[in-house]
Amino acid sequence: MTAKIQLIGVKKRFGPKVVLDGIDLTIEKGSSLVVIGGSGTGKSVMIKSVLGILTPDEGTILVDGQNVTHLRGAARDPVMKKFGMLFQGAALFDSLPVWENVAFGLIQGRGMARAKAREVAIQKLAKVGLSEDVAFLSPAELSGGMQKRVGLARAIAADPEIIFFDEPTTGLDPIMADVINELIVSTVKDVGATTLSITHDMASARKISDHIAMIYQGRIIWSGPTGQIDHSGNPYVDQFIHGRAQGPIKMAVKA
Amino acid sequence: MNILAGIGRAVLGLLADIGRLTAFTGRTLAACVSPPIYGRLIAIQILRIGYFSLPVVGLTAFFTGGALALQIYLGGNRYGAEAIVPQIVVLGITRELGPVIAGLMVAGRVAAAIAAEIGTMKVTEQIDALTTLATNPIKYLVVPRLIAAIVSMPILVAIADSIGVFGGYVVSTQSLGFTGSIYLKNTVDFATRQDIDSGLIKAAVFGFIIALMGCYNGFNSKGGAQGVGAATTAAVVSSSILILAANYLLTSILFHT
Q1: What are the φ and ψ backbone dihedral angles of B86, each rounded to 5 degrees?
Q2: Residues near B47 by Cβ (< 8 Å), separated by ≥ 6?
Q3: Residue B186 contacts by C-beta under 8 Å, 6 or more apart in sequence?
Q4: Which domain does B158 fall in, by range?
Q5: Does residue B10 fall inside a structural domain?
Q6: Around Cβ A119, how many Cβ atoms within 10 Å?
Q7: In chain A, what are the domains?
Q8: Over the Cα atoms of chain A, what is R_g?
């Protein structure tokens, strides 16, 4: 197995607040890693650092063995083309119809002709269970679950090697959450991608991952195969996965 | 001691803002001259920034021209110089009021709309989404708006100039007793190419200010609805002040006074 993504000693702080305090994480090619952790523990900052939206203060991020930590501008484009991402709020472009959202990376990023890109978009929408007539609606006309599906179709549109999922089930009812989980598993298998997800929904984490890592106070405190999460022997992990108010993790009220 | 700390914080904050704005402007200008340039988006923005501003700019120009004619007539009347109305109207409109009034109206309309749109995109992670789709947000969002505003504003001001002069003409011929043909002849004979060109140059600069401040404040909005509201206000206030300051500078440069 080779490492697809590797984070070595990644640190990031905003003013006096240390968010990432030396993250070490390896994601093998073809595997699905879910990082669990409470709100405000640095999960989103970690993903945004890998994506290059934020620059770490210290540490190294490798993608396919290439150091991408400080890669910016045009030099970053080839790396960005390996990525797809499903955002927490779907982050669909509300000025564009659904199909153009899905086809966006193909048209703008890869210069595909609009008519061709529209065909691909409609195929990808079918993969997430949406019919062709949805393609011409505006994102504002869709329910939260439908928006997540469109976001998923957009993330897989360009057949990325790596897909990030930011809280894929947050804000959905339990049934829709499970539908999205199943879609994630099936589409990821379909494109054969490596995935990195962040969530605090344990049902989702168990379903979409083969490995789990737990982040606490800006560090990875446990990681292992999903099957072992119930036998971690780590009191922090136990408290989190069982959702207990009592335990070593103290909730900070102020972000 | 606290007062000094407060002053220090304010000065540091101001310097940081100027630094950020300069860096943002630099990145935008670099993006303007490197491919890809999105022609389709520029066309859409010219429609939204230029074409849809026509009614509001036209109406304000008409009333400004009319009021200007009235004031010059009343002022000139004090020493028997009321015949100078057409000359001063065309001078005032083309050199100052046309570009400044159009600039301020478009700042209220367009800088606010740009800041609100981009600010909402920022807080709903749409700008991050652009990045993950291998699209440079500065190129996709800022450059088309900047180019569209720089192109649209001189056209808007040329139209505002005509309508403003027409407003003065209507008031002068209908209620001040001027003869139409003489009014027009005096206007055309008096106005020079430089009067008009200086106003159009100002308009292009104001367009740059409006789009830049709208985009900059949108990109830097934080938090939810409140942050977007604050960004919108900041965009309108800062672009209006910068327009008036730039207007003074440009007047003194263009007319060598």
Answers
A1: -60, -40
A2: none
A3: B86, B87
A4: 20-28+37-254
A5: no
A6: 13
A7: 31-49+70-242 (3.40.50.300)
A8: 18
pLDDT tens per residue across span A65-98: 888 888 877 778 888 888 888 888 888 898 888 8
Contact B125/A88, CB-based, under 8 Å? Answer: yes
What domain count does chain B have?
A: 1
Which strands sit side by side in the sheet containing A32-36, from one edge to the other?
Answer: A83-86, A162-166, A194-199, A32-36, A211-216, A219-225
- The neighbour count for residue B175, using CB atoms within 10 Å, is 12
Residues listed for chain B? 257
B40 — contact with chain A (CB < 8 Å)?
no
User: For the complex shown, is ipTM > 0.90?
Assistant: no
* Chain A residues in contact with chain B using a Cβ-Cβ cutoff of 8 Å: 48, 51-53, 73, 77, 80-81, 83-85, 87-89, 91-94, 104-105, 108-110, 154, 164
Angle, CA of B144, A140 and A89, to the nearest 5°: 85
pLDDT in tens, A25-49: 888 888 888 888 887 778 888 888 8
Count, residues in chain A: 255
Cβ <8 Å between B134 and A52: no
